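step 3/5: co-fold with heme C
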Amino acid sequence: MKRPSRLLLCLGLLASAACAAPLELLPGPGGRYDLPVEGIQGPGRVMHLSRADLMGLPHGTVDVSGGFGTRVRSARVVFLADLLDALALPPGSDLLLARCSDGYLSVYTFEFIRRYRPFLVLELDGLGPDRWPPPGLAYNPGPNLIGVSDHVVPGVSALRDIGHKGPWGVVSLTVTSMKQSFGGFFQGPWANLGEPARQGRQIWINSCASCHPGPAGVTGGTKSGVPFTLPQGIAAADMKFFRQYVRNPTSLIPGAKMEPHPHYSDTELDQLAAFLGARGP
Ligand code: HEC
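step 4/5: write tokens
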């Protein structure tokens, strides 16, 4: 394929499936199920993708039986990769964040999005979010729900902490970059990390940041309500406690709300601690 002419025509929208004009976002919310999208027109600026435009994007049907509830079988979805292709992405963007109503945050690199094909669910068994929860589902996953499926990319459900890539109650998306949102983790004490701490940083960004905000200027979900210095302090002071807490919080603190991570190996927990405790070059 002759890339250059296409590149010129598309003004750099290399990854775009078609050379359609980017979707126009609206400055204010029109309808209840319009999707707020931050970061397309500069950091912090929230625009809105209308439900009608969302429904007009290329879509697919995914078998989600057993995924979101026993009786739900099929989902009409828009793949986040197609959504990205339809937006006028700012140069340098490489990260998408999905924020939930309870402060939870899912972090998706564009690389993950293109490889593992997470999708935004538009309808479950033919019902849109205005009619959720669908029959058989005990909770309302709306206004927006994101999922991944072995039916789409075989084996995706076996990835470590894949649960963090399937949030429900999603209230907005943010287009950003690793540099803008997590840049702080690549500077100062974290500028020149050894391999274990680099791995730990990956785990933190991919998983822990869903509920734990970083130090000043570094993104993270607000769900835990715990400042970054707390896990940092615990990893430094008491590795035995840190390990057990991350694997099984309620075994140490009855009523702890953090979800358990029983699948973490000693090596992974040491990597996390090496990252949290990094002192710099
Ligand atoms: C689903 C949300 C969630 C995720 C994901 C999460 N945490 Fe937490 N974390 C919490 C909450 C909530 C607390 C506050 C105490 C509690 O209720 O468990 C907490 C507290 C902690 C504490 C302090 C424990 C104490 O003694 O107060 C540590 C350490 C910690 N988290 C480490 C981690 C690490 C490391 C990861 C990633 C592997 C992680 N957390 C992922 C929600 C989360």
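step 5/5: annotate
The CA atoms of residues 184 and 212 lie 15 Å apart.
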